[in-house]
Amino acid sequence: MNKLDLRQTILDSLEQKWRVAQSSMQRAVESATDEETVPEHKYDTLALEASYLAHGQAVRVQECEREIRMFRELELPNSPQHVVLGSLVAVVDMSDRTQYFFVAPCAGGLKVELDGTEVLVVTFQSPLGQALKGKSVDDELEYQVSSTTFCYEIETIS
């Protein structure tokens, strides 16, 4: 799997998320500044609530822009010996199923598909990311989320 293509697929997904956030922010701003939201009495808080929503949507747009910038600047290591930022890791679970994880500085939890293969973006802040950090091929890792324990063996790191 080509990591440059994977990064572009992730960027495309993040840019789509940004477009949705941008559109939501624009609608919230229009609502906050609409003449129908002007308070009619001191207990009418529609305009105030609309301005809070607009602010929240603006923060969301900024977060999307930060994630896109971080992915564009992410250096992709060539043949790393250990799991580091920018690594694509293939692991095998106890049922001999192969799963793919891309270690990134942000956007953890995002799932993308490339060449018919699903890849989950993980960060080192997540339990899985912490378990992966610094591991090598053939290392086993185990981590727990709530009461569920997950066990994997690292098949490849690219």
From TrEMBL:
<dbReference type="GO" id="GO:0003746">
    <property type="term" value="F:translation elongation factor activity"/>
</dbReference>
<dbReference type="InterPro" id="IPR001437">
    <property type="entry name" value="Tscrpt_elong_fac_GreA/B_C"/>
</dbReference>
<dbReference type="Pfam" id="PF01272">
    <property type="entry name" value="GreA_GreB"/>
</dbReference>
<dbReference type="InterPro" id="IPR023459">
    <property type="entry name" value="Tscrpt_elong_fac_GreA/B_fam"/>
</dbReference>
<feature type="domain" description="Transcription elongation factor GreA/GreB C-terminal">
    <location>
        <begin position="82"/>
        <end position="157"/>
    </location>
</feature>
<dbReference type="InterPro" id="IPR036953">
    <property type="entry name" value="GreA/GreB_C_sf"/>
</dbReference>
<keyword id="KW-0251">Elongation factor</keyword>
<keyword id="KW-0648">Protein biosynthesis</keyword>
<protein>
    <submittedName>
        <fullName>Transcription elongation factor</fullName>
    </submittedName>
</protein>
